[in-house]
Structure formats: structure tokens, C-alpha cells
């Protein structure tokens, strides 16, 4: 549903993202996880058709985000970091307005608006002026405006940032309820967020995707074994199959080729993560050479993912539902 290939963006002379590649299958929630300044917003703005890439391409539902940006915008819902709301409109009035802009026919609008309001639990607020809503409710209106035209793909930039713990739980549950019928990318700098919400994670650091995996495998990767980087010569898919059978190997991923790491013909770079406590380096070398592959380099690598992980372990405030909800009911109006 969403395919991103070798995407790069350079602002002036500042590279914001470099050679970003990932894909999102229909119905999946992919978390784009990275520290501040990693390039999450840049990637999402390119996908939403608001920013041209410097290199590479991206397709949503088969449409190129640059060449067919109108078709793409009709097929996505986008929630930027700050929800684009008109504070003097009512929730319902605003959603009607957005539905109109998104090309929903006048006859379909009431049903679509009601569906978005129900989905986002906004029934009690439908006639409330947006400026009177709490931040949590505004965020729900932001999500409602992203889904009101029922797009197949939804892009959410840091959807829980600035919310209190109860609101965070509600917004996460809302996002999870959209999976299956929608394909979703959300960005976050909070590691626990992806394990709670996403089916797959792409970790982005300093503009590069450094790992893509399920949250479970990622945790193994982060807490488990050491890694090796290989430069091999031969058919890469076959090499991965061969390496997967080596005892002690946990994960194998391709390392994207960058300018400083120029690929030569028929050569590929792989990262192999070993299981905790295992040292499969020697067996990796022997197995590859016996299988007829050229092995130009095999080196241990520092656990780069662990470094990223350390930057991402943003703590969330411990949430005690009884205490926090009681306090919330006393004070908050929306
Ligand atoms: N308009 C711009 N002009 C110049 N540099 C920019 C611009 N927008 C972003 N950058 C730079 O590009 C890099 C990536 O920024 P981006 O906003 O995409 O990261 P992010 O992961 O979304 O971070 P955050 O979570 O802090 O929003 C950063 O170094 C940032 O300073």
C-alpha cells in the first residue's frame, strides 16, 4: 500500500533524510521511530505530498506522491504534528468543511462526518466550538479530519505528543481500531509507543533507516546479541537463506548502499545480528565461502541499535487510572 524507495531530502546543504526505504502492507500500522531531528516529519511530509523529495520516490496505493499528488491526497489522511483546525468552527462544521475539500459528495457528507465523529468518540462534542476543547479532544478532531473521507492510508505525525496519560491511551486505542481497514504510518520518539500500537517498526536515526522489524524482534535485536557487517559477492537473497541456517544467527538485513559505501557489481552489504551469547562469526564465514560466495569483509559492529535505543527510551509518566482519572474529572471541562 505504501512503498518508499531510496528517498532523500536535502534542505540547502543539510541532508534531512538519506536513502530511506521501507514499505507498509495493507492494514498494517508501521511506527516510524526516531529521536528528535531524525527525519520523521520530513519523511511524512513527502509521503503526504507536501514536500518534494530530492531523490528517490514513494507510492501510495500505486500513485507516485510527486507525479500524482492530487490522487495521493485523496487517498490519504494526514495529521501533522500540530492539527490543522479552525478554532472558531464547531467539530461537526469543521468536519463537513474538510469532507467537502476532500471531494466527498454533498449527499455522502453527513454519513461520513457522523462515521468519523463516532469512530473518534466525539458524539458529545459535535456541536462544541473547537477552541473550547481540551488538547486530547482536539487531537481526536485532528484524527477525525484525517479519516473523514475514509482514505485507505493514514499518516499520523507524533499523534500522542503533549497528551496526558489517559488521552494517550485513548488515542492509541483509536489508532489501533483503525488498523485492518486502513494502512497507517505513525511517527514517535517513544519506544513503548510502537510496541503498544504498531505491527512493525522502522527505526530512523540521523536521516537513515537503521532497522525495520516487528516490535518483538526489535526488542530481541536491542537486548540480544552482537552484530556483524558483511560485504559479500553473489546473489543476496540466496546468501540470506544460507545465513539464516547458521546456528546462532538471529536476523539478517540488507544495508542500503550509500555514496560513501559504493556498491560494486554483484556485491551486497548485510548486517547479521547474532542471538544473545552466541558468536557465529566463524561459522558465517565458513558457510558463505563453502556455498560459493565471495566474502570481501566481515567485521563486528558496535550495536548501533543500542545507541539509538538509548536515545529513544523516553519515559512515560506512570499512570494510575484511579488517581489520574479522579483528578482529571475534577478539573477538566472537555
Ligand atoms: N525547513 C527546513 N530547513 C532546514 N532544515 C530542516 C528543515 N526542516 C527540517 N530540517 C532539518 O532536517 C532534519 C530532520 O528534521 P525532521 O523535522 O524531519 O525530524 P523529526 O524526526 O521529525 O524531528 P522532531 O521529532 O524533532 O520533529 C533536522 O536536522 C532538521 O533540523
> Which ligands does the model contain, each kind named once?
adenosine-5'-triphosphate
Shape: elongated
In round numbers, the mean pLDDT is 85
Structural class: alpha/beta
Count of extended strands: 14
Q: Strand fraction band?
A: 25-35%
CA(first)-CA(last) distance? 36 Å
Nearest-angstrom radius of gyration?
A: 22 Å
Question: How much helical structure, as a percent, in the residues?
Answer: 25-40%
Uncertain residue ranges: 317-334
Total count of helical runs of at least 4 residues: 12
Major beta sheet summary: 6 strands, mixed
- Enumerate the strands of the largest sheet in spatial order, edge to edge or round the barrel: 6-7-8-3-9-10
What is the N-to-C succession of helices and strands?
A: EEEHEEHEHHHEHEHEEHEHEEHEHH
